[in-house]
Each structure stands twice: as C-alpha cells, then as structure tokens.
Amino acid sequence: MNKKIVTKFGGSSLADAGQFAKVKAILLLDPNRQYVVPSAPGRRFKEDDKVTDLLYKCHRLASMGEDFQETFDLIAARYMDIAEELGLTVDLGAALDEVNEKIAAGANADYCASRGEYLNGMLMADYMGWRFLDSAEVIKFDAHGQLDAELTNRLMSERLADGIPTVVPGFFGSYYDGTVHTFSRGGSDITGAIVARAVNAATYENWTDVSGFLMADPRIVENPREISSITYKELRELSYMGASVLHEDAMFPVHKAGIPTNIRNTNDPNHPGTIISLDAPFDAAHPTITGVAGRKGFSVVSIAKAMMNTELGFSRKVLSAFEEYGVSIEHLPTGIDTMCVVVSEEALAPVREKVLSRIVATTSPDTITVHDNMSIIATVGRGMVHNCGTAARLFSAMSRAGINVRMIDQGSSELSIIVGVDDTDYAETIKAIYEAFVNQ
Ligand code: ASP
Predict the structure, then answer these.
(1) What does the alpha-carbon distance between residue 179 and residue 175 come to, in Å, rounded to a whole number?
(2) Ligand 1 close to Cβ of residue 184 (< 6 A)
(3) In the chain, fewer beta carbons within 10 Å around the N or the C end?
C-alpha cells in the first residue's frame, strides 16, 4: 500500500532558521514524508514583513523606475540569515544576484513573487539533502492563466516516479512557453495538493500555525471546539471559514483523487489537527453540526412578479443581467412569485443601476428591491441527516436571541442551512447557533 506523505509548510513555518529546524524534525520523524512543498518565509513576529510582499514591492518600485535595493537587501538578509544559521553550503549569493538582476531588467510581477518560494526551496533542499524540482517545469497554465491540471499531473508524476525525496517550491508554475506564473495568494497549498495527487499520496499534510479548523470563529465564540474530522463537501459549504486556513482551490486535486488532507501545526507537532476526507466517520457523540461560519457584506436583490413560475425563461433573464455585468451569484433562494439573488455588495455596487434596469427591462417585475448590509451564515454538518429537528433547533435559538431571519436557504444535500441576517446581527447569530448545538 502506498504510504507516501506529501507535506506543505506555510510561511510562518519557514520564517527563520529555528522554524526550519522544526520542519526538519517533523520530516525526519516519519520516513514516509518524502515530498516537501515550501512557502516563502513569512512573518517572524506581528509587524514583520512576508518575503512575498517584499518581492511584490521590489517589482512595483522597479516598474516605476525607483530604487528597490533597500527592499531587496531585506529579502536577501532573510535568506542569508537562515543559510548561515543552518550552515548551508548552497550558492545563495549567485541565486540572489540573478533575482536582483532580473527585477532590475523588468521581470514581471509573477516571476518576482515566485522567487520567494524558489529560494526557500533551494535552502530546504540543501538542508534536507533532497532533490530540488523547479515547479515551472512541471506546473503548467494555459493562455488564460488557468491551471492545466491534466498536463501538470502527467509531468509531475513522471518527474517524481523514481521515488527520490524531493522539494517542490510552492505558489508558481509557468505558461506553456515557460514564462513564470503564480497562483493567487496563499497558492502554495495548491502546489502541495498537486504533488499529492501526482504521487498518489496516502495523505497530504498541510503544516501551518494553527492546529486545524475550529467550529466557529474564535473572535466571536469563546474557545470554540476543534474539528477533528470534516468532509471535503462540508468544508466547501463552510468555505467562509476555511479560506483563512487552506486555499479553496487546494481541495480539488486531492478531493478528486480521494486523498485526505491533514491540517497540522508546526509549533505543536503532536496535535493530530483536522483531517479532511471524502467520507469522514459520523460520530454520534459529536455535535450535530460540524461548524458554523459566515461573512458580512452581501446585497439581496428581491424580484417579485405574480405567476413568475409560469413565465418561461424568467430566471434566465434575471441571471443574465448579473452575468452580463460580471457579478457572480452567491445564493439563490426562491419562492413561487419571488426570486432572491444574493451577491457581494462590493461586486454589485459599481454596476447596481445597470443590473437593476436590465432586470426591469427584460422581466417587467411587479417590484424589485435591494437589501444591503446582509450577512450570510452557513451552519454545516453531515450529522444533520441523522437528526430530526435541526432546523427547528437553529431557528428557535435565533428567535430566543431576538434575531430577525431575513432569508433561508437549505441545500437539498441536507448538509447545510444558510440564513441571511442583518450585518448588525452577524456575531449574535453565530454565537446563538453555536451555543444551541454545542453547549446544550
Ligand atoms: N508566498 C505566497 C503568499 O504569501 C504563497 C503562499 O504562501 O502560499 O501568498
């Protein structure tokens, strides 16, 4: 049986030599940990800079014709310090000079930013005595900047087929012509998932500075419980919460391949963290819900028209107005004569009048209204199907807390209940729901 483990370490896990030493100890503890995907050095303390941010800054300054040396020196010092403290022999000076020259010669922003991971990968390979594989050779993007997942998977698995322990720097790849291109911020998570799929790993370990997911935002709920296991589908539904720990796009390669992701804490390596898998066990002793998370700042556009259900193409006309002006739709709760479209307030604002006029022109509704400052809160749990009265419990808790429910949307999967409330009720709603399911 394949027991290979792919590990990805985030920026704070590799911020200095002390953190590198922790990473090495973790890697050596289990011989199945044969692949490592490093991020660029992150913050060492609260006010510190992330190397990636400094690299973007160098690019910005260079493109305005301004001097970027002072900023570049900060970056160079970060790597030099690590290399020196760990006694590494890699020719870092030459690598740094090359990056410096390329920035001065007008290299694009993606190239500049990607060097954070590239250089950290060089250090890591030297420190572990492992092979270094340049991600630009194996991670490929099409002309639109979309990952070519199948080509990437083929190239990556070919290169890693020999089973030699390898360092694959995170965050970037290249277009077909070899020009470097990055994922969006936090994208090293995606690289890790790609490597895990390519070597058909038993587990994808994503090492960060928290011990996995919590059932609710700790800034709202005091000491929320940890989530020990969650399914990929549940996490998608909870994406408002997950995004800060794991890049959303990092789920697809491993989800598809059925490989579990284990979120772990570099600073607390004995903690089992959170396991995300296809079919996490249902534990009857566990609360009915897996987590509750939400986000503020939505607008709900409500369109009412008598007999809309008999009017062919009504919804299509409404939805195309949003599509035409580039506003993507978050939720779509409907009634027999009303249709609500929930969208991000920020995305709607600049095109609001245009979208509304288009809907009026194409569908002649009886009324059309917009409620701003709405929050969307998702209560998610694979346990919901096993328990009657989940919705009743949730709404009684909200009613006891005096919260007005402005919108309800229950997915047909019985995996989540989504409610819309005023932004001012956001925190209270999360607290009330959490308390109803966890502490009662
Ligand atoms: N270093 C990149 C960033 O700061 C990518 C990553 O850390 O995943 O966004």
Answers:
(1) 5
(2) no
(3) N
Q: Would the CB of 381 count as within 6 Å of ligand 1?
A: no
Rounded CA separation 79/84 (Å) = 8
pLDDT in the model for residue 240: 72
Q: Is 11 in the pocket of ligand 1 (CB under 6 A)?
A: yes
Question: Residue 341 pLDDT > 70, yes or no?
Answer: yes
Instruction: Express each pLDDT in 371-416 by its tens digit.
Output: 999 999 999 998 887 777 888 999 999 999 999 998 888 766 678 8
How many Å lie between the centroid of ligand 1 and the Cα of residue 130? 22
Name the CA dihedral angle for 341, 346, 349, 350, rounded to a multiple of 10 degrees.
-120
Give the pLDDT mean for 306-322. 94
Q: Is residue 186 lining ligand 1, measured as CB closer than 6 Å?
A: yes
Write down all domains in the chain, each with its CATH number in brackets.
5-277 (3.40.1160.10), 291-438 (3.30.2130.10)
- Return the number of other C-beta atoms located less than 10 Å from residue 377's C-beta: 23
| pTM, full prediction | 0.90
Please report the sign of the dihedral spanned by the C-alpha atoms of residue 421, residue 424, residue 430, residue 433. Answer: negative
Distance of CA 7 to the CA centre of its chain: 17
For residue 234, report the distance from its CA to the centre of ligand 1, in Å. Answer: 25
Say if residues 333 and 303 touch (Cβ distance below 8 Å): no
Task: Indicate whether 1 pLDDT > 70.
Answer: no
Buried b (16+ CB within 10 A) or exposed e, 8-43: bbbbbbbbbbebbebbeebbeeeeebbbbbbbbbbe
Length of the chain: 440
CA–CA distance, 63 with 45 (Å, rounded to integer): 29
Residue 378: what pLDDT?
93
- What mean pLDDT comes out for the span 359-379? 95
Cα–Cα distance measured from residue 298 to residue 22, given in angstroms and rounded to the nearest whole number: 42
Residue-wise pLDDT tens digits, 59-117: 999 999 999 999 999 999 999 999 999 999 999 999 999 999 999 999 999 999 999 99
